[in-house]
Amino acid sequence: MKKLFLPLFCLVIIHCGKSEKIADAAVIMEMPANDTDKAFLKEEAPPPPPNRISEKIASNNNSSSSQVNPSISKKIIKNGDLKIQVGDIKKAQDQVSSIVKSNKAYIQKEEFQNNDNEENIDLTIRVPHQNFDALVNSFSDGVGSVLSKNISSDDVTEEYTDVSIKLANKKIYLEKYRDMLKSAKTTKDILEIQENIRELEDEIDVSEGRLRFIDDRVNYSTLNLSLYKEKVRTSATSKVGFGSRFGDSVTEGWNSFVAFLLGVISLWPFFLLIPVAVFLWRKWRNRKKK
């Protein structure tokens, strides 16, 4: 009897152990996954595409924009103002024309003034930058007496470089927009791309115009030349001898006398009224006595 009971007891224990393992497995399968497991198993969703077309262009163009760094030489703009006193305006003007021609320059603007005291010619001269100093020296040494001289140099390399970099980037953006316009599907996208293209084209025109202006001022320097002739010298400003000063004083005195005489003559209508006024006054006085 004991021999039969022992094997049956072992079979019951083994069967119970298997049942517990199966039940535990079933419980594990039925348990809901916690938050950590959900986060681990959940597939990460891709980020939404950008809404604005300009953001797409910017994301595609970051690397190419950072590589735009043109090598630009020094950009120096030279300007000058020169005033020269001459003895003969016509002769000085001929000398200026010869000097301008020999230095491959040209006269951009010319103004002439003539009054009782002086003659004055104002010239705006454009000259290649490499001939600027030679032109100024030729005027200073061979035309007349220099009354004033002002020469300035302006370094615009930084501005030119900045405008050039921005212009290159804008052209890259413009090409990207044109490529996107070919593949645009909706009317909204087409209108937005066309507006961006129009704005970029306007900005490019402005930048290119600024660069052309700077190049023109760098390649051709500007000199403002004034030729001055004093007609009547005074003793205070004249640098000649006593005889010339004495002659100038006599001339000035005579001119003053002539001016006074002409002024008196211009009052002749009032002189005609004086006898009439005296006659009427005497007549009124005689009547009063009677």
From TrEMBL:
Specify the DUF4349 domain's residue ranges: 74-282
Query: Which domain of life does the protein's organism represent?
Result: Bacteria
Q: Where is this region: Disordered?
A: 40-70
Give the compositionally biased regions (Low complexity).
Answer: 56-70
Pfam family name, one: DUF4349
Instruction: List the coiled-coil residues.
Output: 174-217
Residues crossing the lipid bilayer are 257-281
| InterPro entries in the record | DUF4349
List keywords of the entry alphabetically. Coiled coil, Membrane, Transmembrane, Transmembrane helix
- What's the protein here called? DUF4349 domain-containing protein
Which species? Answer: Chryseobacterium gambrini
